[in-house]
Amino acid sequence: MASPVAPTKSRLIVTRGGSAITSKVPKPVVLVDTREQMPFDLARFSNWLSGVKTATLDTGDYSIEGMEHLICLERKSLNDLVGTLMHQRGRFFRQLERMQAFPYRAILVEASYAEVKSPYNFTQDVAAHPNGVSGSLDALEVRFGVPVIYTSTNRALAEEKAASWLSKTYTYWWLESQGLGRILQEGDL
User: Fold this and answer.
1) What are 142-164's pLDDT values in tens digits?
2) CDD domains from the xrefs (predicted)?
């Protein structure tokens, strides 16, 4: 497999009427929950984000300042995900129920789907099977309406995905709130 390319250094490009309005779109400040034990290093994505602050979030690990009740991103390493599904299922389901109130919500898994579906070398004391874990993720995605984003065990790639998702989620919200529609560029998907 080829090495991943580095993230872009440019801002997210937004145009209206053939002209760039990128500079008019404020860059968001990401909030990281105070209980996040191994927080992502998102400060390096200054092309997309204006800063990172620590705050106590009611639900989730990451949000956007001023949008704490609109945007919720829950991060799970593969080890944490398996442990949560095996030992803290009830608590996790209650969290997913709370996440349903957020218009923009997702679970970001620090693993590819192939890694979720492969035998685990860290579950000696837990009878976790990859089919059970992947099936649980499918079920809770449908039951609670919380999308699951599979990323990578490569932390830098997972951080990039989180920063990109948070930035784009904010940008689409901002454009809509300004009456500019839900597109980045005319002719966009």
Assistant:
1) 999 999 999 999 999 999 999 99
2) XPF_ERCC4_MUS81-like
